[in-house]
Amino acid sequence: MIEALIETTERLCDVLAAENTALEALDLPTAGAMASEKGRVTKALQATFLAVSQAALKADGEVQEAALRAAIDRLGQLTHANTELVEQGLALQMKLMRTIARAIPRARAAEAPIYQADGSQSPPRPPTAFAFASSM
């Protein structure tokens, strides 16, 4: 029974490792697509854990216990790395959104009317000159 728990834990570790690799490469579509697989394997791990009794864990021996501890330690490390990568991705996304938000008022300012000291509006700015070349 403990073999199933080790196997399911290792499957979740593999999914997290693949997601971490995608996040490190900023391959967000791939990382996002892995969410359903991660959820499925997590549910399988929960079900397997609930099916294994404490007595079964003790009966399977020290070798299996060491393998399970190693798998759980790996899962903990991958989970920590995954959390950091997701937080870095969110910070990068926020930085990008702030940059865009700061650029919009500047771009719109060129279209805004100019007012004189007496409150009257200046004549509209002349349109930006464009030159088009056509070769035939």
Which helices and strands, and how do they pair?
Elements (H helix, E strand, L loop, with lengths): L1 H23 L3 H6 L1 H17 L2 H6 L1 H49 L27
Helix pairs in contact: 1-3, 1-5
Write a structural description.
This protein has one domain. It is mainly alpha-helical. The mean pLDDT is 84. The chain has 5 helices and no strands. Helix 1 packs antiparallel against helix 3 and helix 1 runs parallel beside helix 5. It is rod-shaped. The N and C termini lie far apart (79 Å). The longest helix has 49 residues.
Biggest sheet details: none
Q: What oligomeric state is this?
A: single chain
Measure the end-to-end span. Answer: 79 Å
* Whole-angstrom Rg: 29 Å
- Overall helicity: over 70%
Task: List the helices and strands in order.
Answer: HHHHH
Number of helical regions:
5
Describe the structure in brief.
By secondary structure, the protein is mainly alpha-helical. The protein has helices at 2-24, 28-33, 35-51, 54-59, 61-109.
List keywords for this structure.
136 residues, mainly alpha, 74% helix, rod-shaped
